[in-house]
Amino acid sequence: MPNKTRSTDTGLPFIVSVNQVKVDPATRRLIRSHVMRGKNRAKKPGRRQGSRDNNVPKTYSSTTHEVLRAETIPRWLSSKFSGIRFADEVEPALVEDVFTLLSISSKAMFLLDQCIIPSEDGLVQAWIAPLIIDPAYLHIACLATQAFFDSFFGRIRTAQARRAEYASFAKTVKILQERVTTNDRNELLSDSTIMTVLALSGYAYTQGDHMAAHQHNVALLKLVCIKGAHTMLRNPNKKLVNEIIRTDFCICYESGEKPVLFTFDGIPWPLMLPWERAVSDKDPEGLVTRLHPELAAVLTAMSHFCRLINIASTNEAARVTEDTFLHVMGSVLYRLLHLRYDRGTLDEAIRLGLLAFSRPIFLDWKTVEWINGYFVTAWRQTLEDLIENLAFTPRDSIWLLMTGALSMSHDPSFLDRLTGGLRVFTDLCHITTWEDMEGLLNSYIWIGVSLDQPGKEIFGLTSKRAGKTPPFTR
């Protein structure tokens, strides 16, 4: 019987052969093409000339770049991108970049990732599944990812890429507008919609559009409030919960408003406090006894957390869980942002100092610069008062000025004034080496794994000021 080739409704060719007669050339070519397609599917695509690695500059954050190089998409996953039906048509390379960023996002963006045990809630289910069901999330996830890599590597997009970017952004906004118009609560308050708005905010931050980011943050919190803040806390996707809480804090830092999701009396996390004996042993400066009791409790909890992180930085078995991290972040920052004290008091200086200390620990993306909002202005005024009035003890002033110098590195002229003030107080306390300085900082609160290196650089600047008149005047 001769060979027969037929097609089904699926468009797949079937070749039936029941004897040893050679098939015709056209059929042989068809068979060969499908065999090679199967073989090539398992192969890792070769890097084409002029690929993305050429855009990596010579100078960059070595830690983050090592993470980007080390973390790659599993080979089986990359080979199947072309077979996955996503929520809309996008280039597979863009989705691959989303997978890459998700796999290294915590390491690349946050200082304490190495001290935290990652949750087992399932990366694919929590963050990847919406790419298949929600076109709005798919498009903005691809855009935010490209914007992050552009910012990190200093890439400049082509005109064609910008046009495609605008089209994807417009699709995301149009879909969200339709959801608001139809008022389908299940779809409007779904995790994928909340993640879409969150990604819009991140995209705006990386573009330097802080006003748009603020508007997206406000919209995000409105959705969460409609859904219920306590309902949000029960979400098994702890990374999403963390980002929502961070959004509430970011608005407070920028605007000076009090948090939206929880009132002071409604904060769902109690402070994680050490034993009473440990408190007295760890407060040689007697600072706790000189503060308002509510603020003193927050300082004690933050100091306890810093000690846990310092241990975890040298002992992998002592790492904290994501739940513990969220608990400390929520319990400390919500209280600090609700509390208020008079300007010029030790309580207000320590409250703002703790907020400045906590911001890079809990909130900052390493590649995103913060605007000079309410907090930056209030913190700067406090530091100016501290330099000019010498209102606190020299050792209190050293911790406050060091924390201020670390948070004001973007302002060279003001940083110069802060290091001048530090020089005066370190002389008064007979601090001549970094070891002396480190001992003093640890008697307050300090996290060596993330702050020792920049702290040494600040101390080096104060040492170079020997013999110079400190800039105490404005």
Write the layout of secondary structure elements.
Layout lengths: L3 E4 L5 E4 L8 H17 L20 H9 L4 H4 L13 H18 L6 E2 L5 H11 L1 H19 L5 H24 L2 H4 L2 H16 L3 H18 L1 H5 L4 H18 L20 H6 L11 H20 L7 E2 H17 L7 H18 L10 H16 L4 H14 L4 H17 L5 H9 L5 H17 L10
Parallel strand pairs: 3-4
Antiparallel strand pairs: 1-2
Structure description:
The protein is mostly helical and about 475 residues long. The protein has three domains: about 5-35, no CATH class; about 70-255, no CATH class; about 275-465. About 65% of the residues lie in helices and about 5% in strands. The chain is built from 21 helices and four strands. The protein has helices at about 25-40, 60-70, 75-80, 90-110, 125-135, 135-155, 160-180, 185-190, 190-205, 210-225, 230-235, 240-255, 275-280, 295-310, 320-340, 345-365, 375-390, 395-405, 410-430, 435-440, 450-465, and strands at about 5, 15, 115, 320. The strands form two sheets. The protein has a two-stranded antiparallel ribbon with strand order 1-2. Helix 2 (about 60-70) packs across helix 4, helix 10 crosses helix 12 (about 240-255) and helix 15 (about 320-340) runs antiparallel to helix 16. It is globular. Residues about 1-20, about 35-80 and about 470-474 have low confidence and may be disordered.
Keywords:
single chain; 474 residues; mainly alpha; 3 domains; two-stranded antiparallel sheet; two-stranded parallel sheet; 4 strands; disordered N terminus; Transcription factor domain-containing protein
